């Protein structure tokens, strides 16, 4: 099967910027208390089983989740990002993989985080992604999504000092909620906060669970 072009573009771009991206976002959670609050709430809702940080990038959120007491590991499309994550957090597990086809067993996860990682998936492919999230989560498992609010696709050609070829989607929270519910999730909580430093638009966070 031919790989979708957006996957190749995303992988290549993040391989290119991996080291510089990791340096820039290193203090991100330290500057965003509401983000930490949502991750903390997610951690308290997870009752057992490992937690996948899907689209983990350089591993910052994976590391934070482990600090909250979760058995967290990371998966990312970009081998370059996975290499950086393994180097920065050698005690954690990181693997290369696609959220469209996770190399994980059915119902094996207690929780799943997609922290600003669905933003490079075309909206018409999100039902596939959410179905895959639903497949790998155990009954009563929780998923936490973070993304920028909007309703537009932005073509990015320059990032973190490098030429890239990325499309980033700003997403309406109501639309994502509807897609989660169609995939079999029940909403637990939602938050939209105003833009912070270095941000241009509001940021959304959705917490949902699978049926018990």
Automatic annotation (TrEMBL):
Keyword Transferase: yes
Record-level GO BP terms: methylation
GO-annotated molecular function: methyltransferase activity
Domain Methyltransferase: start-end pairs: 53-141
Keyword list, A-Z: Methyltransferase, Transferase
Superkingdom field: Bacteria
The protein's name in its UniProt record: Methyltransferase domain-containing protein
UniProt lineage: Bacteria, Bacillati, Actinomycetota, Actinomycetes, Pseudonocardiales
């Amino acid at each position: 099967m031919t790989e979708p072009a957006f996957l190749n573009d995303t992988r290549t771009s993040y391989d290119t910027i991996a080291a510089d991206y990791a340096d820039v976002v290193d203090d991100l959670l330290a500057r965003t208390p509401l983000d930490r609050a949502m991750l903390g709430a997610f951690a308290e809702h997870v009752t057992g089983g490992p937690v996948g940080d899907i689209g983990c990038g350089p591993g910052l959120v994976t590391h934070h989740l482990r600090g909250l007491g979760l058995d967290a590991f990371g998966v990312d499309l970009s081998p370059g990002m996975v290499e950086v994550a393994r180097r920065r957090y050698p005690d954690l597990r990181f693997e290369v993989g696609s959220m469209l086809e996770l190399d994980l067993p059915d119902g094996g996860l207690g929780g799943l985080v997609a922290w600003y990682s669905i933003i490079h998936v075309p909206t018409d492919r999100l039902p596939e992604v959410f179905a895959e999230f639903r497949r790998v989560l155990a009954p009563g498992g929780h998923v936490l999504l973070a993304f920028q609010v909007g309703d537009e696709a932005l073509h990015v050609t320059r990032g973190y000092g490098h030429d890239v070829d990325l499309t980033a989607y700003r997403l309406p929270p109501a639309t994502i909620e509807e897609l989660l519910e169609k995939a079999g999730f029940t909403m637990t909580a939602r938050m939209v906060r105003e833009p912070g430093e270095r941000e241009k638009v509001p940021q959304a966070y959705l917490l949902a669970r699978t049926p018990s």
